[in-house]
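Reading a protein record of the kind used here takes little practice once its layout is understood. The reader may check this reading against the record printed directly beneath this paragraph.
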Amino acid sequence: MSGDSRRALSSRQRLAALVIVTIVAGVVVWRTQDDGDANASAAADRSASDTAAAASAETTTVVSTEDTAVTPTTEPKLPPFDGWVDPASFGRMWSTEVPGMLTFRGNPTRSYYGRGPVPEAPRVLWRFPASGGLCSTSSDGAGSRVWCGTGWTGQANVWENPTDSRLWLAFGAYDAAYHFLDPATGERRLPDFKTGDIDKGSATVDPDGFPLYYAGSRDNYLRVIALDRDTPTELWSLNANAVSPTKWNNDWDGAPLVIDDYLFEGGENSQFHIVKLNRGYGADGKVTVAPQLVFNAPGWDQELLNDVGDNDVSIENSVAIVGDTVYFANSGGLLQGWDISTLAEGGTPTRVFRFWTGDDTDASVVADDEGFLYVASEFERKNERSRAVGQLMKIDPRRADNPLVWSFHDEQIGNDNAAGIWSTPAVHEDIVVTTTNAGRVVGLDRATGAVRWEFKLPGPVWQSPVIVDDTLIQGDCLGVLRAYDVSDTAVLPPMKWQLEIGGCIEATPTVWDGRIYLGTRAGGFYAVGDA
């Protein structure tokens, strides 16, 4: 067996893990919906809850120069799963060889939120940069303007580097650069990697221990970056216009997945891509790649274009993989699954699942250990379909003719005259937690979709909820980060602490070994923890 084959096998072994499913005592009502018109209305009865009490907490800014301790991983290794991603890896850390938050939402099912402990009385430990802001000028549909800090989705990577046994931190920002820092101090480990435009998505660290970083930018390129040089070095890039046909844009918001030497990624060019990386090492000991684009396909079909009436069908979420199926959605609301079971043997992926949400679906699909998908959509087109199926859906892809299990509706308009959900939902024990553009934070019964509790924060709330050690970490658009106790999923979660940082918190925080890492739209990136 070659070295590459051994690495491929180990990546599947890391995804095999046991999950203990806790069943909460009580009556569980399983609901499915009659659906005379391709999955019609499926809203569960919802009840209102009291607004969460806001207990203020005194905050002080301090700077830590202590080394960040590396906590040995205790994740068990189990026999390999015969497929790409074991459904039992739901909620688990992706890699035991490279412990950390390696990609957006931590693993291929987009269901891992970090490692505790969570700070108990947090302060700002350091800010990057120490002064000034991470800003540059960029253009989009709204014109040219200055962008600062980090935004949606913007989750930082933290990982234990097997090359030097140190903890590393990396993130892209609106200064058109990726930054590689010492998490203990906020000082640079490597020079910045400059891009030609802002970096607003999330990136991915190689899960097999290769010193590689996979990152996209609004400058047109998805890149493979080597981190074993004196400066971060681009080894390969994929131009958004290298495939055809394309629609909409040239950005790369989604965090790629790398499994068994294959990279999976959707782009704002509206195409789904699979790249064979051919990773290795040269005679000088430096990491090498020889990528080949082995598959690409439009993420839309003519039926979708007819239904939405426009060409806004970009793929802005991070693809999820469970079993042998890749799931993603697009800005036209087309949720789809692609079978990759024969990919490694030279087979062609085929689309095996299709569902239309009716509206822009930028949040990443979450796949659980029971075979269900959780899909969140915006409410912008305000068409009949999005009003019928709602803005958060539990989907059973095994029931192709009637996959909608339950749905949650959010048509509350925020200050920006938009509604619906931009954040990726969090599945925690027997609840699903979501946030909305208007600022609602909602806990839903995982089985029925009924609202168990709800409170309001200053919106828009695009940051995806993070739950670690029964603690919900949630920021708002006034720059306040809060922690809530969700150990009892049936009650309105009491607030444990709040910390004013400043600047709208759009990017999803990363929790790792007692610290929280996040940026805001005010221009800075922060480490938060106990003094």
